[in-house]
Amino acid sequence: MQDEAVQMLSVEDLVQACAGILGGANAEGEARDLVAAVFDESRSWSALHSHEMVNEKLTAQALLATRRRAKGMPVQYAVGKAPFRHLTLNVDERVLIPRPETESLVDIVLQMAPSGTVADVGTGSGAIAISLATEGKYDSVIATDVSAGALDVARENALGYEAEIGGRLHFREGPLLEPLGDERFDAIVSNPPYIAGEEMETLPADVRDWEPHLALVSGKDGLDAIREIVAGGAALLRPGGLLALEVDSRRAERTADILRAVGEYEKIEVTIDLTGRPRFVTGIRRNTATLPEN
Prior knowledge:
The protein is α/β, with parallel strands linked by helices and about 290 residues long. It folds into two domains: about 10-70; about 90-285, Rossmann fold (3-Layer(aba) Sandwich). The chain has helices spanning about 10-20, 25-40, 45-50, 55-70, 75-80, 100-110, 125-135, 150-160, 160-165, 205-210, 225-235, 250-260; strands at about 10, 55, 80-85, 85-90, 115-120, 135-145, 170-175, 185-190, 235-245, 265-270, 280-285. Helix 1 (about 10-20) crosses helix 2 (about 25-40), helix 6 packs parallel to helix 7 and helix 11 (about 225-235) runs parallel beside helix 12 (about 250-260). The N and C termini lie far apart (about 50 Å).
């Protein structure tokens, strides 16, 4: 944080100071969002508490976040945290910002594979893995990521919920399924990279210029990681085990076709997200497979 002298301000004065830094037609509304995020409150909180005084530490945090946002940094990075289900997660440029639609992926896993051992492939901030470990009745949750920096963020986030996790969450570094070895799982879940390389320039600037490309891009058609997870996952899932993927809505049916082509999955389904777009693909490992049980 920048070393600068700050004074105590009322909530409303802080909002106006942040709006002055941001400028633009919607400066005040965005300032209220930023101040609310710093305080872990709803947007309406600033209006209801407009005359309350803000201490110097929180004032400095809000002003720093506003300066970051004024440079184009996404709000969640600017504030340093993002909400996800019941969690408040630390986020920075080492990890993707958790999206609301991914919360539905957690619901799918909790409903379709409520117990046993689950792997979260490409965990990023740990949003999915920590949610499953704190909400589910799993013996263990294994979270993998190729990025050491992302795993540092995820581990830090998990520490804040250690009492609920109870030692059942484990992090491993490496690409996709590789850190899982030859273990067997009751569910494999992933929100993998799914953007085609040539599509990067078409993404919004606050995604393209700030979020880690390693977690976004997956080959020429956006399906390289998905192909690897689908093919390799068949060898790691117990018969009846769940594979659950979040995908680009434009490629949901192609992803389902990849599962069908492997020939080891049944009950393959495409599920829509909160906006009505096809977003999730699930499949069940065939019971006829001759896999050794661990």
